[in-house]
């Protein structure tokens, strides 16, 4: 009996559950970078070194993570005096392993009800924060806390100013934002999969901050959006892909409906196999940085939305009705499913952002760019 024909092997993108943006885009971007590198190898090597040196200079050292953990534990003791089932969980850049040296600490006050649920009612969450702030005001731990204040905002917070024994650190506390834990858990794993991810994100954010691109207070990009943009780029643009679609490959590790909050590791830990059998990609940090810039310089924001959760870009006209948004850019939050750039409505702001990306592309073409000075 003749052997049945074997199925053709999956391509490197299908194997890790992501969708390639297309060979035409990837080949065009990296052919230009390869050509530039052939003519300017010294400058490209300098860019690689600059990104690594910048990362080493800016990333928070271990002792700062340890200090933040001591602060968290001390504040948990305070929370327990107000709420029987209260605790505090690290969130934000510290939890995502993206905290800069001397950075602030973001915490989430988690208070379960008698059924073990965390209320999502905005009024109830505000009242819980107000109760915690009132206790801190009356019972201020003077050995660490200078003052606290309650800030009424779309997402209310309690802000603490610590004393010099705690590096004069600011601590922002939200309440019961439990879906953020899943987002932090996912980003941690993407960062730990490949050492280039963390360095590239930090380099992109530094460049974006210097050039007015990372400036959410003026309607431009926020830090979380840039992180999602880098992950999408390393999933769907570079070839072979550097990052897989973790939520599709390991739903029992990352999806809220598959893993209860009680089972979610809230301390950094790797919860998936170390070897995902991904095709090797040897692009350098400098090549990855320039590829990121080139990709988003020509990105069609009016046509495509970015979905890290799905491992692909999606035509905006085909989005689900519940996900459609008229904002100038669309980058999905992977667990709460909202547009992280939903407040951007001004096309001139979006154009100004994209012009900053295009300026680097133009500088490369004209060979008038100081690569080492970009970061």
From TrEMBL:
<feature type="domain" description="PAP-associated">
    <location>
        <begin position="284"/>
        <end position="339"/>
    </location>
</feature>
<feature type="domain" description="Poly(A) RNA polymerase mitochondrial-like central palm">
    <location>
        <begin position="47"/>
        <end position="191"/>
    </location>
</feature>
<protein>
    <submittedName>
        <fullName>PAP-associated domain-containing protein</fullName>
    </submittedName>
</protein>
<keyword id="KW-0479">Metal-binding</keyword>
<dbReference type="InterPro" id="IPR002058">
    <property type="entry name" value="PAP_assoc"/>
</dbReference>
<dbReference type="GO" id="GO:0046872">
    <property type="term" value="F:metal ion binding"/>
</dbReference>
<dbReference type="Pfam" id="PF03828">
    <property type="entry name" value="PAP_assoc"/>
</dbReference>
<dbReference type="InterPro" id="IPR054708">
    <property type="entry name" value="MTPAP-like_central"/>
</dbReference>
<dbReference type="Pfam" id="PF22600">
    <property type="entry name" value="MTPAP-like_central"/>
</dbReference>
<keyword id="KW-0808">Transferase</keyword>
<dbReference type="GO" id="GO:1990817">
    <property type="term" value="F:poly(A) RNA polymerase activity"/>
</dbReference>
<dbReference type="InterPro" id="IPR043519">
    <property type="entry name" value="NT_sf"/>
</dbReference>
<dbReference type="GO" id="GO:0031123">
    <property type="term" value="P:RNA 3'-end processing"/>
</dbReference>
<keyword id="KW-0460">Magnesium</keyword>
């Amino acid at each position: 009996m003749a052997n049945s024909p074997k199925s053709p092997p999956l391509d490197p993108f299908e194997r890790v559950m992501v969708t390639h943006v297309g060979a035409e885009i990837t080949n065009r971007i990296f052919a230009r970078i390869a050509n530039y590198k052939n003519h300017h190898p010294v400058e490209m090597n300098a860019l690689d070194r600059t990104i690594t040196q910048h990362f080493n200079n800016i990333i928070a050292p271990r002792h700062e993570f340890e200090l933040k953990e001591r602060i968290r534990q001390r504040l948990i003791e305070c929370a327990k005096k107000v709420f029987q089932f209260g605790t505090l969980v690290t969130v934000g850049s510290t939890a995502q392993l993206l905290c800069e040296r001397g950075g602030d600490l973001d915490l989430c006050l988690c208070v379960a009800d008698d059924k073990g649920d965390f209320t999502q009612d905005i009024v109830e969450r505000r009242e819980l924060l107000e109760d915690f702030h009132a206790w801190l005001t009356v019972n201020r731990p003077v050995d660490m806390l200078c003052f606290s204040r309650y800030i009424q905002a779309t997402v209310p917070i309690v802000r603490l100013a610590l004393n010099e024994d705690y590096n004069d650190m600011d601590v922002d506390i939200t309440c019961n934002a439990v879906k953020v834990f899943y987002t932090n858990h996912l980003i941690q794993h993407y960062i730990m999969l490949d050492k280039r991810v963390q360095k590239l994100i930090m380099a992109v954010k530094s460049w974006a901050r210097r050039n007015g691109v990372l400036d959410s207070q003026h309607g431009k990009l926020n830090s979380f959006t840039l992180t999602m943009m880098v992950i999408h780029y390393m999933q769907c643009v570079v070839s072979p892909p550097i990052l897989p679609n973790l939520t599709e490959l390991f739903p029992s590790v990352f999806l809220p409906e598959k893993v209860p909050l009680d089972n979610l590791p809230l301390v950094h830990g790797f919860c998936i196999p170390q070897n995902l059998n991904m095709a090797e990609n040897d692009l350098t940090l400098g090549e990855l940085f320039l590829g990121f810039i080139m990709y988003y310089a020509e990105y069609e924001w009016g046509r495509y939305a970015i979905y890290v959760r799905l491992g692909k870009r999606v035509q905006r006209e085909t989005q689900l009705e519940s996900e459609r948004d008229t904002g100038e850019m669309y980058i999905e939050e992977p667990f709460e499913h909202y547009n992280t750039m939903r407040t951007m409505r001004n096309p001139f702001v979006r154009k100004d952002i994209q012009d900053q990306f295009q300026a680097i592309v133009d500088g490369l073409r004209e060979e008038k760019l100081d690569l080492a000075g970009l970061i």
